[in-house]
Amino acid sequence: MRLKELRKKRGISQLKLAMDLSMNQNSISRYENGEREADYSTLIRIADYFHVSIDYLLERTDNPSFLE
User: Fold this and answer.
1) How far apart are the C-alpha atoms of 31 and 67, rounded to whole Å?
2) Cβ of 47: how many Cβ atoms within 10 Å?
């Protein structure tokens, strides 16, 4: 998942992202390190937060937009 890349690119800490998404920092860390996979609703929230498609977030495409 491109979560860490997107977060760092925008200069957002794990704690800020977790607070913005009403999650805890530990979950963000586990998603970034591949220790845990996000469920469908969490993927939607993260993709919406960064204004990217879920396919981009999951590295299925290099195009961040919703339309290819």
Assistant:
1) 25
2) 20
Q: Could you tell me if 18 and 32 are in contact, meaning their C-beta atoms sit under 8 angstroms apart? A: no
Whether pTM > 0.70 for this model: the answer is: yes
User: Residues near 63 by Cβ (< 8 Å), separated by ≥ 6?
Assistant: 53, 56
Q: Report the amino acid identity of residue 66.
A: F
Work out the widest C-alpha separation in the chain, in whole angstroms: 33
**CA-to-CA distance for 48 and 58, rounded, in angstroms?**
13
**Which long-range CB contacts under 8 A does 57-66 form with residues at least 24 apart?**
57/1, 57/2, 57/3, 57/6, 58/1, 58/2, 59/1, 59/2
Structure confidence at residue 67 (pLDDT) = 61
